[in-house]
Specification:
By secondary structure, this protein is mainly alpha-helical. It has helices at about 30-35, 110-125, 135-145, 155-165, 180-190, 195-205, 225-250, 260-275, and strands at about 1-5, 10, 80, 85.
């Protein structure tokens, strides 16, 4: 028996019964079965995660009505990635279900990839510039707006570039996520704040008119934030604080003043500070 390199479904024929991909019996099953965990902040996500394009994989409902995670394996202890060892999760037993988004060691399961793909395609098809197969800043803005999330000042010029750099998301230009970068971004949001991201994704799915073939429930998200992801979120927030501090220390509000007058820049910096202190800057 071999596992499909596209969706992980086991099979014995020449083609996958789920997505139709040609099966290669000579491939190592362990290489096919493994899902990539959240990458190190200094590296982009491996191209094998979730397929090379959201349009190359089957969408929910195309061949099955529920995720199938039979091809996913987990290991005990810490998970090894290209960036090193992923920190252990909180010591809370968590039973894996067909609709669970992450495995016990932070591995992305099929349900995560289905949700990620559906959101990517909906944003790419309905938000300008459409059909680019990229997630520009306008699409991240809409992802937040349909869920009722605030948009901070200098969102595209300062907040997004720093955020993507901090979490190691692959970009195709300033503030433009690739498919791999989008997976990194969405996984980081879930792992760094699962409670808030559960509410965010649920609202975004409703706002974009996406109907999943299973009910989205809180128990399918991680029980607690992962230490590595939470640490990166704090690193981003400190970076924003440092930037705001630098802008206030300069008489001309260095950087911020390039886009607005000194007074307006000061108001924007204070607005950023307020959003940060209330935990709303990038939720």
């Amino acid at each position: 028996m071999v596992y499909c390199g596209e969706c992980g479904t086991p099979g014995e024929g020449r083609f996958c019964i789920e997505c139709g991909t040609r099966l290669h019996s000579g491939e190592s099953s362990s290489a096919v079965k493994r899902e990539d965990s959240l990458p190190n902040a200094s590296q982009a996500e491996p191209l094998s995660s979730g397929g090379t394009s959201p349009y190359s994989s089957p969408t929910p409902g195309s061949s099955s009505t529920r995720p199938n995670v039979r091809g996913v394996s987990t290991v005990s202890g810490s998970a090894t990635t290209q960036g090193g060892t992923f920190p252990a999760t909180p010591n809370v037993p968590q039973q894996e279900s067909p609709t669970q988004l992450f495995g016990s060691q932070g591995y992305r399961l099929e349900a995560f990839h289905i949700i990620s793909r559906e959101l990517f395609i909906a944003l790419d098809r309905t938000t300008l510039p459409t059909g680019t197969q990229l997630i520009e800043a306008s699409k991240i803005r809409r992802f937040k707006e349909v869920a009722g999330r605030p948009i901070p000042p200098f969102f595209e010029s300062h907040v997004l570039p720093l955020y993507y750099q901090t979490i190691g998301a692959q970009c195709a230009g300033s503030s433009v996520l690739t498919w791999e970068g989008w997976n990194t971004y969405l996984a980081h949001k879930i792992l760094s704040n699962p409670d808030d991201t559960f509410a965010h994704i649920g609202a975004a799915l409703r706002g974009l008119g996406i109907q999943l073939p299973w009910p989205l429930v809180r128990s399918d998200f991680p029980a607690y934030a992962y230490p590595d992801a939470a640490a990166r979120e704090l690193q981003f927030q400190q970076g924003i604080r440092d930037y705001i501090g630098a802008s206030f220390s300069s008489g001309a509000y260095s950087g911020l003043a390039r886009r607005r007058s000194g007074m307006a820049a000061g108001i924007a910096a204070r607005s950023l500070t307020g959003l940060l202190s209330n935990g709303f800057l990038f939720n």
